[in-house]
Amino acid sequence: MERAFAMMRNFGEDVRFGVRQIRRAPGYAAFTVLVLALGIGTVTAMFTIAYAVLLKPLPFEADRSLYQPVVKTKVGSDTQSLSYDEITEWQRATQGTAEVAFNGGGLNIADGPAGAVLMTEVEASRNLFSLLGAKPMMGRAFLPGEQEAGRSDVVVLSYALWQQDFGGDRDVVGKTLHIGGLQRTVIGVMPPQFMYPMWENRPEAWVPVERGQLMGGNRDPYLYFAPLVRVKAGVPAKAVEAQLARAHAQFAKPGESEVRLAGVRDLLVADVRPAFLALEVAVGVVWLIACSNVAGLLLARVVSRRTEIAVRAALGAGRRRILMQFLTESLVLSCAGAICGLGLAATMLRTFRHMLSEKLPLAANIHLNWAVWTVLVALTVLTALAFGAAPALVAARTEMDAGLKSGGSRHSGDRGQNRVRATLLVGEVALSITLLIGAGLMVRTMYALRHVPLGFRTDHLVLTSLTIPIDVYKDRNVGTAVWQPLLDEIRRTPGVRAAALSTVLPIHHPVELITAVYATEWMHGDANATVRAATPGLMDALGVRMRSGRFFTDADTATSQPVMVVNQTFVNRYLGGGNALEKVIRFGHVPRAATIVGVIEDVHQDGVAAASQPEFYLCMSQLGPDQQIYRALLGRFMQAAVRTEIAPGLLIPELRRWIQQANPHLAIGECTTMAEAVEDSIGAQKLAEQVIGVFGGLVLLITVVGLYGLLSYLVAQRTQEIGIRMALGAGRGRVVRMMMRQTLIWLGVGTVIGIGLAVASGRLLERFLFGVSTRDPWTMGLAPLGLVVCGVLAAMVPARRAASVNPVEALRAD
Fold first, then answer.
1. Could you point out which of 551, 679, 740, 814 has its C-alpha 20 to 30 Å from the C-alpha of 706?
2. Helices in 556-647 by DSSP H: which ranges?
3. Coil, strand, or helix at residue 80?
4. Tens of pLDDT along 317-361?
């Protein structure tokens, strides 16, 4: 017990002494705390984000036993949507080993106080909530009989919708809500943390899937659902996977597809996981550089305090006591850096939460919690050890006689200490080069992305999404009853130069329909292509060039010859790249034919970095309710492209108002400009560029300052040596060259190591690069050159100071 009290007393004394030492050198302390705050703050912020996104359990019961089946189709793509018949077969095949639920649906229209409101409606199987282990905070979930016709007019609300439409009314159960023209009775409200499916738009209401629309000859052939599997305890996931694959074989030709079970979280973060790994590496580099920089400063402080250390040793302090003293000082500095770093971390978290909120539902979980605080404490101690261990060992090994004789400040220190400082500096340079090359590659990627020929014009172009209530127009042709009258009104809006409608517009679209294209005399073998419906004038509104033929005109009507327009990729891939005009193509779930009348330039539809895929357009006026493809294309969603004569931002409020007046039944989605849509499509690369660029700037600053500090210290320690050299005839130029030669050696060694590390770590960035290789020679040359130039400029100041040493004063110095 006495020993423990003695240790605590010694620790308290060391803390007080360390604080006094820091107060005696405020400039050194401020710089050290700032560097540590950068290192600890960035690591804390990134761990908080990684924990929330990659590690924190999902808000479901036993979330690790939840799987999303993924089916690989014969064309090599993955799908997570299946027909009701196949899901039913899966439920039969996995009895005893797993439970299968499913959900579908999507956007729908609710009657709000100000008119039609677009909302997310999830059609769910009755066992979805129980499979997830979720219970409503008020009311109840679905009952088995509520999947039957006439009893499915019930709804479970999300917490957000309950607050928004019902004002948080505790008596909401039993009240009604109009969704898609149907009156539904509220039976429950889910808790605020519940959200499923998590990878769609935020769900706002859950309704039971009516069994009647899933069975019989009149069911929709395009109706698919996403299955969800919970593997029972003690059952290997691979065994369930094999059962699903055997059941799936009844619906697919042998060898055409396979089934695998993917963890729900794995699918949710699949797109962002590589970005997080790259950012974690970048943050680790910043932390290592910060620690090595501070370690170099502490080593310099140790040499300047040799006399103090020797006096303490002479008064009876053992090496262990001196070691603990310097480690305690390091811990004090690390704690100060951690406190300041918390402010930086909080700022970074707000920024990242905003950036990720639209792309990742789990972003709502990004906040400081017990796990983060635990890691912060451990990180503070680890940081203190990382930068304080080497200086503390050097201090503990200081010889008492040498320290008392040296006078402290002018002693050059032994070669071992200088070697340690040089090694730390070379390591800083190497890590800085690695991060700067990564930042350079991202800058080159952004430049390449912003100069990709998109195939359309982005200026003065407004995009908006429109949703139609199915029940209001279920017995009418929505093309003639809704879309064409609406287009006429948009074209009459002041400030509109041109306007057109399409089921899918470039870049800014949530879904698209891929359909079969059957072999004809022009083609060899069946194929797949994206199909869209559009009105005349679309290519003029988008600014897309026709390669041959024409686009649709007002002469293309329901009674005229069916026509289509294809893109150049379709021609190259399926028609041998030859003349496509007047060729007849068969397509669709129920095959129909159309004649090619035009070929358009390839357009980047799915993103700036995504290559063009085969696609064809059908004329909207030629589609009617008697055609299978009509409902899939026109029955629900539409997008408008409006080219303006004024600034697009000024037209958006007026455009929304005119559309609302023209048809109050329509729900208007997000209105944006094409320029904003293009910029959002490169959001992942842009985020990586910004973050890695900021980190690159930080490490460049820290490294240059560290180089300046080390050379300044060496000049101060080698004053007598420099004075002797100058007294023996060495000129100022020779002294400058001597100092700069040492600098160039450090920079050269660090640069070579850094380039090697950059090449080895190139795979982390490979996913985000576009138009540039991980071994791009320009980046590999310019990034190191920039650091070397900055390092040389930083070294010139202490080198010139060394050349200005007065030999007489240097020789007189003790």
1. 814
2. 568-574, 628-634
3. coil
4. 667 777 777 788 888 888 888 888 888 888 877 777 766 666 666
